[in-house]
Amino acid sequence: MLFGIEWNTASNLAFATSILPILLIGLITTLKATVVGFILAIVIGLVLAALKGAPLKVISYPAAFVIEFLRDTPLLIQLFFVFYVLPELTGIAIPAFVAGAVALGLQYSAYCAEVYRGGLEAVPWGQHEAIKALNLPSAYGFFHIILPQAIPRIIPALGNYLVSIMKDVPILSVVTVLEMMTIARIIGDRTYNYLVPLSMVGILYLILTLLASFLVRFIDMKLPKSGIPLK
Amino acid sequence: MDWIDYLGPMLDGAWITVKLTFYSTILGAVFSFLFGLGKLARHWYFKIPSVVYIEVFRGTSLLVQMFWLFYALPLVGDILGLNMRIPPVVAGVLALSANIGAYGAEVVRGAIQAVSKKQYEAATALNFTPKQTLWRIALPQAIPEMMPPFGNLAIQNLKDTALVSLITISDLAFVSERLRNLTQESAVVYTLALFMYFGMALVLAGMLKMLSQYVGTWRRAAGGK
Fold first, then answer.
1. How many CA atoms lie within 13 A of B193 on its CB side?
2. Do A74 and B160 touch (CB under 8 A)?
3. How many domains are there within chain B?
């Protein structure tokens, strides 16, 4: 029994149908962690990208190092660091879910920062020259000329990282976040049947990622290729 | 225990991480070519298994794959009446390489499709067999294009090896976790672990860059571009 729902071990099929609602509770946690992690990633990534693009080397070099460091170290160790070390340094205990979302956000912020940079660099240089030639203020040029052309390139890439984040959520099981795979393992531990719950998690993931990649492709199709009109 | 004393066991763990990365990257590259070329094959009995493999391993979480191989596969064996209990190292390497191989297969497919169509037309005009076209025309031009994404995948793989600690393999992540339990010095232990992974990633990136430069000379040999 888990979350007040009993399982039926009479046959594999009965077992599968009886644990599906329990796994779906875990699925909600998985999606929550994905969304919170993604929002943190796009925000922290924006800050990192802006710092890396700063004209002062004292700012841009450390930012570049931080991006490289976050990208080249495993999420698992980053998660342990956030969960065990940050409370020691700050004296504030962090709930497992928050630690997990922060670790996901940190790891993927480095990838997002690269996406922003790549999107901005993909705008042809002639556009920058045209802004200068027309004597437009540089802030106006950035927000009304460059950014609208960069956004259609940035959004599909961010969508792919959203899917990646979702696939990394099971790592949060090490700090006891009750996401879908943690729950599957608990069920396996109690019934000695890992095959059914773990296979179901695999299938649910497959459905989720297929849906998500379909959605990303749909958004990509709907996006105007030349740029988004801003008000 | 001083922090310097942690280095011994952690370096032992790091060596296991290096070996795991090495084996799973090599096996992953084999999977990449096998299924990447399989997806491009004309016959459905090559194509369908490749597409299924790629979708399943790209569509599910690595940790789920690893746990499935470690916990669920023996139960499949019980049903079939076979002993499918595999050692943790085999489960770990298999999951890592199958996962990275699925991403690699898409890289292989993309790079081969990106070779100019004229090259294939020329090969047909010169009466090359399909095998000659693949080995002498397509691959020498496609492999240099695959190297940058392969490099990213290898780094990804190095980071993913940390997950094998969860199926009881004593790699760097596992040793760090045990040291933290023993000493409660989490800040020191995990900072060391992070920098060791970072160092390994930098070395790996450097090695792949050298390999990429070497492979780049094949393109000239093939006369492409």
1. 31
2. yes
3. 1
